[in-house]
Design a protein that fits this description.
Distance between the termini: 13 Å
Cofactor: Mg(2+)
GO molecular function, one term: double-stranded DNA 3'-5' DNA exonuclease activity
CATH topology: Deoxyribonuclease I, Chain A
Organism: Sphingomonas anseongensis
EC number: 3.1.11.2
Order of helices and strands: EHEHEEEEEHEHEHHEEE
Number of domains: 1
Low-confidence stretches: none
Protein name: Exodeoxyribonuclease III
Strand order of the largest sheet: 3-4-2-1-12-11
CATH class: Alpha Beta
Shape: globular
Number of strands: 12
CATH superfamily: Endonuclease/exonuclease/phosphatase
Length: about 260
């Protein structure tokens, strides 16, 4: 009989891997995640710090982009078998927003969804179209009974409970009724929102602006999510937000969000 292992899988918008590599390496050493999805690399492929990450014990696959976007997956527990680096039907390959791989019998999709501001406008239209492609791909994963996690920076605040002061975000694309509706329909396919499932009574923010001492006041929002497919949901053991690195000097404005699943 095969032994069971609990994997700690995290998502972290690093907000510039070049300038925050030290932050990332410190967090990897202290938190010891098994698999990590990174967003907002803000670097071209050739500048991705694969050697430094390998020295820290992590193999990596990545899709970079100059100055903007960029996604990567890291693993210290097994080979990452890349399955795609954009959503099906995405006409804009210049924007690196999605990367997907299988590791330890789990398919992990890591994303940096469009921000969509200003709203309304073409950037908001692009956001909604991108979320539609995500919806279609997610449905195919569920229809095929794939043990999967779709995680990353969704750039969607799902409900009033997920924001410190809803009225301050009323005109922001992240809190628009259209974006929230698309997130709700995505979850309604059968996905488990890990944080909300295991912490129904806590806001569990993942992002705080740099200004007005937002982190110190806990004036945050929840936009980093991990959705677990029905085939994997029974093996979901824990989920949380590691707020520690958000308090470090010159850090990202996001905190890592994580889940633990049994494999």
């Amino acid at each position: 009989m095969a032994s069971k292992k609990t994997l700690r899988i995290a998502t972290y918008n690093i907000n510039g891997i070049g300038s925050r590599l030290g932050i990332l390496l410190r967090w990897l050493e202290e938190f010891q995640p098994d698999v990590v999805g990174l967003q907002e690399l803000k670097t071209i492929d050739d500048k991705f710090p694969s050697d430094e990450l390998e020295a820290a014990g992590y193999s990596a696959i990545w899709h970079g982009q100059k100055s903007w976007n960029g996604v990567a997956l890291l693993s210290r527990v097994g080979e990452l078998h890349e399955t795609r680096r954009c959503l099906p039907g995405d006409p804009d390959m210049d924007q690196s927003r999605y990367i997907e791989a299988a590791v330890c019998g789990i398919l992990i999709g890591n994303m940096y969804a469009p921000n969509g501001n200003p709203w309304p406008g073409p950037k908001f239209d692009y956001k909604l179209a991108w979320l539609d492609r995500l919806f279609d791909h997610a449905k195919e994963l569920i229809d095929n009974d794939v043990p999967a996690i779709l995680m990353g920076d969704y750039n969607v605040i799902p409900t009033d409970f997920d924001v410190y002061k809803p009225e301050r975000w009323a005109k922001d694309a992240l809190f628009s009724p259209e974006a929230r509706e698309k997130y709700a329909k995505l979850v309604a396919q059968g996905w488990t929102d890990a944080l909300r499932e295991l912490h129904p009574g806590e806001p569990m923010y993942t992002f705080w602006h740099y200004w007005r001492r937002s982190f110190e006041r806990d004036a945050g929002i929840r936009i980093d999510h991990a959705l677990v497919s029905p085939a994997l949901a029974p093996k979901l053991k824990a989920a949380g937000v590691d707020r520690t690195p958000r308090g470090w000097e010159k850090t990202s404005d996001h905190a890592p969000m994580w889940v633990e699943v049994e494999v």
